[in-house]
């Protein structure tokens, strides 16, 4: 038996090393891509409301996610090394030797008017070109990047000749129905342009541009907004036709391909590639309200007894399952209950509030510490009514259920951990006289 075991171990080792030898380039690329995505998330979160008065809309979303927003206390991050705006040229925003750049900017303006992106869209386009090429129609760039927007033939933006055509490049950047890459079957351009980004008109300019460009420096576009605004106003102010179209501000409603769809929600921000969750947690504090209405529904129980966090039907039990969003088999470390947003959640027994936090997966959540090494965790909340360090009684309303984090819809997720290990809440609660299935 031992020789066979040794042979099996050697065989497995050989197979593993062989697989790594064949696939290490892919693994390296994957690690680099993941690292770049993390950088993008961090920078995007820091700049999500840094321009154009869009901080109010994002702050409102943070309020909906359970954060206490003090608009007066919020200061947008400073722009990093904002360049000096040239002067002395034939057009404001340009220097005396910038004739070619003025021509290129005019080409972008004409394409933007044709695409119907409005004044804000034109500013996004000019800011993107300022960052990518300095408004020069470059015949070189990183790898096969070319032209005003440094678009790449290998990424489907067109041939090298097409990309260096300012009108073609600009229409590609703006996307929508006038893009040379528009697909009538899907109703969008591929590669996607600005008009194909959900809610682009409500996003900060740096985020809108990054949603199209996918740059390695996602926060860089913000520093060009002031100059881009001067250029757009200068180049559209002298033309009646251009001015009448370009001066129109896009609706403040969510836009998909230019069609208004309603106000921006957290889900809309996430769909646009904006980590609104990270922005909220970085800039605002979790709400801690008096919860007078919820408190009226409290049923305080004697110390040492247990109660159900809420009385509702179980929709997903503890155990291994195929994740409905991530599409992988993984442990569902708690029990899900049917619950509309705003349903009161009770402390199952006496305890101490250990943490109140935000997690990209769990959303707004609360952890309570109880006797005997037991912790209960309450996930996907819309509002928290307690703060870390608070003593809570069994039956006390600690939060309101919600739909935050990674979620398929409003519900309540209840976890029990014993000495740091997640356990099935149902049998543990039964040991304390509580049948969580009583309402299923």
UniProtKB/TrEMBL annotation:
Membrane spanning stretches: 27-49
Keywords: Hydrolase, Membrane, Transmembrane, Transmembrane helix
Key word Transmembrane helix present: yes
Gene3D superfamilies in UniProt: Glucose Permease (Domain IIA)
Domain M23ase beta-sheet core: 331-425
Signal peptide location: none
EC number(s) given by UniProt: 3.4.24.-
Sample GO molecular function, one term: hydrolase activity
Protein's recorded name: M23 family metallopeptidase
Organism name: Cellulomonas alba
Origin organism lineage: Bacteria, Bacillati, Actinomycetota, Actinomycetes, Micrococcales
């Amino acid at each position: 038996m031992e020789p066979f075991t040794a042979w099996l171990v050697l065989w497995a080792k050989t197979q593993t090393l062989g697989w790594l030898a064949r696939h290490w380039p892919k693994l390296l690329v994957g690690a680099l891509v993941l690292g770049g995505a993390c950088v993008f998330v961090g920078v995007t979160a820091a700049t999500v409301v840094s321009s154009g008065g869009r901080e109010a809309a994002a702050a409102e979303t943070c309020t909906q996610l359970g954060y206490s927003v003090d608009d007066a206390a919020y200061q947008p991050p400073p722009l990093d090394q904002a360049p000096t705006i040239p002067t002395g040229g034939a057009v404001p925003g340009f220097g005396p030797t910038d004739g070619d750049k003025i021509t290129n900017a005019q080409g972008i303006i004409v394409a933007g008017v044709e695409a119907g992106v409005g004044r804000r869209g034109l500013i996004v386009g000019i800011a993107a070109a300022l960052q990518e090429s300095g408004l020069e129609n470059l015949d070189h760039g990183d790898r096969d990047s070319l032209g005003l927007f440094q678009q790449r033939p290998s990424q489907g933006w067109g041939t090298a000749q097409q990309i260096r055509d300012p009108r073609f490049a600009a229409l590609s950047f703006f996307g929508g129905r006038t893009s040379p890459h528009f697909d009538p079957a899907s109703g969008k351009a591929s590669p996607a342009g600005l008009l194909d980004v959900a809610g682009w008109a409500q996003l900060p300019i740096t985020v809108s541009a990054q949603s199209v460009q996918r740059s390695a420096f996602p926060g860089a576009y913000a520093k060009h907004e002031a100059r881009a605004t001067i250029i757009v106003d200068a180049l559209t102010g002298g033309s009646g036709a251009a001015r009448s179209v370009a001066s129109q501000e896009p609706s403040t409603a969510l836009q998909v391909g230019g069609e208004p769809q309603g106000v921006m929600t957290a889900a809309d921000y996430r769909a646009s590639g904006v980590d609104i969750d990270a922005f909220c947690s970085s800039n605002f504090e979790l709400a801690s309200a008096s919860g007078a209405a919820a408190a009226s529904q409290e049923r305080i129980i004697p110390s040492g007894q247990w109660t159900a966090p809420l009385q509702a039907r179980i929709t997903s039990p503890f155990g291994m399952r195929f994740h409905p969003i991530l599409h992988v088999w993984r442990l569902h470390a708690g029990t899900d209950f049917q619950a509309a947003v705003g349903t009161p959640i009770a402390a199952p027994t006496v305890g101490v509030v250990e943490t109140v936090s935000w997690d990209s997966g769990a959303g707004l959540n609360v952890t309570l510490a109880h006797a005997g090494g037991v912790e209960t965790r309450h996930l996907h909340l819309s509002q928290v009514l307690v703060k870390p360090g608070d003593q809570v009684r069994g039956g006390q309303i600690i939060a309101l259920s919600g739909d935050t984090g990674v979620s398929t819809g409003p519900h309540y997720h209840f976890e029990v951990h014993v000495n740091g290990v997640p356990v099935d809440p149902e049998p543990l609660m039964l040991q304390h006289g509580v049948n969580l299935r009583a309402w299923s």
